[in-house]
Amino acid sequence: MSKHKLIPNTFALKCIADSSITWPQQQNEFDKNQPYIVVGEGSNILLLDESFHGQLIQVSNNQFVVSETPDTYIVELGGGLNWHKTVVQLLEQGINGAENLALIPGTVGAAPVQNIGAYGVEIAQFVHAIEAYDVQLNKIVKFNNDDCQFAYRDSIFKHQTYQGKSRFIIETVWLKFSKGAQVVTEYGPLKQFADDYQRQHNCCPTASSIFDEVCRIRQSKLPNPHKLANAGSFFKNPIVEQNTALQLQQQVEECLDMPIYPYADNLVKLAAGFLIDKAGLKGYAVNDAQVHQLQALVLTNKGSARGADIALLAKKVCDKVNHIYAIELQPEVRFISSAGEVDAVSYLNTLLDKS
């Protein structure tokens, strides 16, 4: 166990944990009755305070093992692996399917918690099984895909808690890919790319070409956290009834060209970045916390912002979008206080009460 360790995070916020544990090697030093948080690369967290009075847990498993059936690949992945490097390694071994998820920061173990997704693909589509340590039962448990209760940017791992803390520490993830799977190009800018590729090459795009295009798009739209501190998409894309979306398009002039994506039944997904942009919030700042000037879905730390500044900026963004469009935005990132994880929406509502 190490003492007083900085918690890794792409917002470049200084927050020191009282102690840190490398999992599972130092599992015997883990005290489940003390506060703890499980953090991969810190690419989806907002640290609200400058200290965390508890244990920082970091999973170090890094196995990458491929097995095959006649129709599928089953890939066993350690929870400590970097996700993007895993996508690269999959493609190098001729395993297609995850290319739309290229350049999403974070670890393999964190990916199912959030059910990461991009350009029409979610990791939930590939999860075959997950092995995790159950803090409550003090043993390793295994989940199949249905057990994970995947939803949009959500899973059972977000909601099952032990004494208010994460109940499960994901150690291993098995992904299942169909051999000969078709690339997914129906979402957003990939559709135009696929059409152009078909005309130029007289065939569908390859998985490698989709990977390259996704990387190009993300690098052009999202700031590099090593150069400008951020946690990627800060807000979830809101899911609303189809009639609500159509009314917005018909009644609000700036929403005439608002993107609407089918979701389920009578529900559709709206682009949160579009709403934030049309609300005039690009470049809006609270001290050194700022809405990115090119991608409104991203909140940034220009240098000396505190976690409280970023949270207050998020609150102001949510308030203005709700005031103009009657659409409630919810943070996608996890909020971590000095005592542990807190519900992001509830925390922002607390700020609302104080304003």
UniProtKB/TrEMBL annotation:
Disulfide bond among keywords: no
InterPro entries hit by this protein: FAD-bd_PCMH, FAD-bd_PCMH-like_sf, FAD-bd_PCMH_sub2, MurB, MurB_C, MurB_C_sf, Oxid_FAD_bind_N
GO cellular component, one term: cytosol
Name of the top EC class for this enzyme: oxidoreductase
GO molecular function, one term: FAD binding
Residues annotated as the enzyme's active site: 153, 233, 332
Pathway named in the protein's UniProt entry: Cell wall biogenesis; peptidoglycan biosynthesis
Matching Pfam families: FAD_binding_4 (PF01565), MurB_C (PF02873)
Subcellular location: Cytoplasm
Co-factor(s): FAD
Presence of keyword Secreted: no
Any one GO BP annotation for this protein: peptidoglycan biosynthetic process
Residue ranges of domain FAD-binding PCMH-type in the record: 6-180
Keywords: Cell cycle, Cell division, Cell shape, Cell wall biogenesis/degradation, Cytoplasm, FAD, Flavoprotein, NADP, Oxidoreductase, Peptidoglycan synthesis
EC number: 1.3.1.98
Catalytic activity as recorded in UniProt: UDP-N-acetyl-alpha-D-muramate + NADP(+) = UDP-N-acetyl-3-O-(1-carboxyvinyl)-alpha-D-glucosamine + NADPH + H(+)
Gene3D superfamilies: 3.30.465.10, UDP-N-acetylenolpyruvoylglucosamine reductase, C-terminal domain
Function comment: Cell wall formation.
UniProt record similarity statement: Belongs to the MurB family.
HAMAP family per the UniProt record, alphabetical: MurB (MF_00037)
Protein name: UDP-N-acetylenolpyruvoylglucosamine reductase
Designated gene of the protein: murB
